[in-house]
């Protein structure tokens, strides 16, 4: 099992990490995490990520803990990245709280098991959901023992802001109250932020797939999205649940529901108000009812519900071949539904401020012979007797299949699965699907079950007819984006030559994006590691967050391992940095002094005008803070220490040579500041003498500091 770098981790109970304070720890896979804490408080410039794989949480919870105060203002603090994969839960859950570094990413992938009663899988209700924080829960299957309130996949705080996002993708939940719960008062989703529930299946969800517990405002170019999801629950269960007498206001933002077939469900349980700068888009949605008033700008395409006319008075219904706009303002939608993103919305598809996993996600059931599968990458582990294929499907070992267009045969040569675009007949033959763009037609060649892009057909029609294409916005035969592992070359999706490449548009031999734990080299291949450092030719195999060799003319910065030009210098007022690092100065600009550790160029300290003064008070050249030997400070001046004339005295008071402050050994100080032999003091007098000595020392110190 692999080991990866992580931040400081505090373990309670089972050993989970070799912890190193404020440096890099080593996470150990396959351990019990209940009662443990991943602590962002120890995050530093050398800590890039923490990963847990195949761990368990039993009868407790695991905490990803932030800092008690904001970390977002630190210019040198790197974004945190915590990934928890293949997590097994048994009466357990996860907590995220406090302040995390800006642009941090928390990923929960392939979690499974039973969650603590009344708790969410991921309790993020006390985290500061801001400053680019991105939380992704994907491809997970969880359940609760019995149905009750408070049981959601993710519980969030009431305020999600400043380009932050929550993506719940490919999650199945049983006996949940909701997929996402935002129960706190005065809910605000704003500042180019996103909450999205895609490819979700919920058994129960009495509160809705997304539940708002109070008045809600979706504002400032933000988005709420529900797609490819379904609820198995009571009649009238809403997709969007709203507390009684509460309104959801959409202001300069987007509310979108698409590709949802829920004939027993309602759209919403409370009023939704959409302003003129926003859009509520409903595409390929089948419902029992809308359920409540949705006022304002609403566009619809292939919408089915009994009460549309009563609940959506201003609906703009598009024909099945038309375009229902789905761009977050201020981005614009062209005639082919593509988003023209603004500077603050760099990512395509719906136009978001952060990378949207939905854009490249293709849901795919496990192939024949597969025991564990992962969305578009299909199978990750085959059953006994099967072996993994290049396309991530499973084939029987030692099978000689003679059936044309068959991808998987039995040991006897009988076809079990046909290639994409073909359907298996009762006689075991593979015949072409009669629906253009259809991938799977198992019962009838003219009835499509799954389209080539992985989506379910709408009215037995597939949006894309190009094999392995996931997006055909302008026409069914014109592809704009291929599935992972394929590149778009002359409107054809061709498999990338590198098996670890997930995108190679334009040239199948030049990878532009690699799979997790791999990075793109300057030669366009995928190398092991998660290094994505700009201008880096070779990353450090032991630490992919640091470059080992940069492309010319860039050099490796020994401070943080990044690639910088020789002229780059991060020390203010530095004329030339030390070779090999941007954080230490060799020579400051004229008029500045170099600090002893070479990390700063300081304004020169003005000379001190006080005679016999070693150092003046900062900012005041006329008042002394420390005098030379033989002098003491008095009202900012340096006065000579007087000779001591008290018998048996080791140190007189600074301002009075006739009064002792410290006697020699064997003598005690009297109240008259003289020294008497300890032999003539009885045992009861000694404590008083100590108090006198203390008082004298305090008086002497007060005189010195005056």
UniProtKB/TrEMBL annotation:
Keyword hit for Kinase: no
Domain EGF-like per the UniProt entry, residue ranges: 365-395, 400-431, 463-494, 568-602, 607-639, 643-676
Protein's UniProt name: Surface antigen-like protein
UniProt entry keywords in alphabetical sequence: Signal
PANTHER family named in the record: CABRIOLET.-RELATED, EGF-LIKE DOMAIN-CONTAINING PROTEIN
Family annotation (InterPro entries): EGF, Giardia_VSA, Growth_fac_rcpt_cys_sf
Superkingdom of the organism of origin: Eukaryota
Species of origin: Novymonas esmeraldas
Annotated signal peptide: 1-22
